[in-house]
């Protein structure tokens, strides 16, 4: 199936959902949603400066609304979309387009678009008889379940991420700083074919690993230090996310014991994943292993999250989520323990939910199991 056919099929599903909600059209502003529906790859320069919007009416051709900076790119990438420019602003263009399209109820993505933008739109559109309707997660719910092409792209991203880790790990030595290693990882990603890092790389030595989202600093790597690296990249539009924790040198018995604990929790979480199981049940399976060891207070975050075009997507493997897993969902499984004054251990892989279990996308298991 061609990319044009894939986008057409997704748009058809979106239109059915619009009609079910009694909406005449939707304005799509979230960049990953925009790409998912059209193939348009331009990125926003912050939430205050958009590279464009999709206008998907319930009937007729969809539009890509942008400005002159992105016109050629939009025309090249968004096959099947009518490209319209807004030299006098988005609100004025919509006020002229929507009545001609018969749009009276326009949905918008309330989790992404700015309040000030909504105010301007409301003022212009009310004057032409168009009501704005706030929507949440309409396209994101479509993105939760990946098709097999998306899963292959995610697998490719994961494998490239692993190869980057393997190359950088071979160069690690005492005297390098956290910042040095993070920079090396991100430059190696690009050298090996990634579009960009999926998020700012986390590198933490020793007690700095007790911060789950530690920021790489000037601390120097010493022999026998615990090293936590959380890294991900974007390849062909899709993200990967992986954490490895290891020791530079020979690990002490206490480290080995705690590492094995986290690995047991990860395996318990993965064993609980299958279609029909709730996210909270998966979280509980892994968390119980850590609680039983007496370390429950040191595992504060959720077990995992969805990954796709964005690094954090639904579903969330959280104790608060009653969402049921469906075949084709792709999630991380990343238990950890974080002990102030000592450090942290997190192990993270990505898996695909299948009917009777899960399929692991990671191939390299270096530093997961300790003998």
General description of the model:
The chain is an alpha+beta fold. The longest helix is centred in the middle third of the chain and has 22 residues, at 148-169. The chain has ten helices and 19 strands. 36% of the residues lie in helices and 22% in strands. Strands 4-3-2-1-5-6 form a six-stranded mixed beta sheet, with helices on both faces. A three-stranded antiparallel beta sheet has the order 7-10-11. It has a three-stranded antiparallel beta sheet with strand order 8-9-12, covered by helices on one side. The protein has two domains: 3-143, 3-Layer(aba) Sandwich (Creatine Amidinohydrolase, Chain A, domain 1); 145-360, Creatine Amidinohydrolase, CATH 3.90.230.10. Helix 4 crosses helix 5, helix 7 packs across helix 8 and helix 9 packs antiparallel against helix 10 (279-292).
Number of domains: 2
What is the fold-level CATH name, i.e. the topology of the largest domain? Creatine Amidinohydrolase
If classified by CATH, what would the architecture of the largest domain be?
A: Alpha-Beta Complex
Helix content: 25-40%
Secondary-structure-derived class: alpha+beta
Strand-residue proportion: 15-25%
SSE topology string: HEHEEHEHEHEHHHEEEEEEHHEEEEEEE
The multimeric state of the shown protein is single chain
Shape descriptor reads elongated
- Indicate the radius of gyration in whole angstroms: 23 Å
Number of strands: 19
What order do the strands of the largest sheet run in, or round the barrel if closed?
4-3-2-1-5-6
- Low-confidence segments, given as residue ranges, are none
Q: Tally the helices: what do you get?
A: 10
Q: Ends: how far apart?
A: 46 Å
CATH class of the largest domain: Alpha Beta
CATH-defined superfamily of the largest domain:
Creatinase/methionine aminopeptidase superfamily
